[in-house]
Amino acid sequence: MRCEVNGEERQSAGTDTMLHPVASLLAYITAAVTLEPGDVLLTGTPAGVGPVVPGDEVAVHVSGIGSLANPVVGR
């Protein structure tokens, strides 16, 4: 997984660097909750977190899945 802000890489990490394996997280959560299609399991963030401001573009790339880019807008 990779995150870019305005084309500059801010974060890059694989699931192999996670504290708990994805399978363990799924087993834990599904012991208490039934996951439905469209549910999202958020697991935290790798190093590189930083501010974004209106006008920035944030793009996330997930190997084997695709990319999603969105502009940051102000309120």
Folded structure, characterized:
The protein is an alpha+beta fold and 75 residues long. The protein has one domain (2-45, 55-71). It has 1 helix and 4 strands. It has one helix at 22-30; strands at 2-5, 8-12, 57-62, 66-71. Strands 2-1-3-4 form a 4-stranded antiparallel beta sheet, with no helix packed on it. A hairpin with a 2-residue loop joins strand 1 (2-5) and strand 2 (8-12). The longest helix has 9 residues, at 22-30. The chain is globular. The two termini are 28 Å apart. The mean pLDDT is 94. Residues 1-73 form the Fumarylacetoacetase-like C-terminal domain. InterPro entries: Fumarylacetoacetase-like_C (IPR011234), Fumarylacetoacetase_C_sf (IPR036663). It holds the Pfam family FAA_hydrolase. This is Fumarylacetoacetase-like C-terminal domain-containing protein. One of its GO terms (molecular function) is acetylpyruvate hydrolase activity.
Give the helix level as a range of percent.
Answer: 10-25%
The SSE order reads: EEHEE
Provide the domain count.
Answer: 1
Give the rounded overall mean pLDDT.
94
- List low-confidence stretches: none
Strand proportion, as a percent range, falls in 25-35%
Q: What class would the helix/strand composition place it in?
A: alpha+beta
**Which shape, going by the Cα principal axes?**
globular
Number of strands: 4
Rg over alpha carbons:
15 Å
Q: In whole angstroms, how far apart are the ends?
A: 28 Å
By DSSP (H or I, 4+ residues per run), the number of helices equals: 1
Strand order of the largest sheet: 2-1-3-4
Biggest sheet overview: 4 strands, antiparallel
Domain Fumarylacetoacetase-like C-terminal: 1-73
Organism: Streptomyces gardneri
Protein name: Fumarylacetoacetase-like C-terminal domain-containing protein
GO molecular function: acetylpyruvate hydrolase activity; metal ion binding
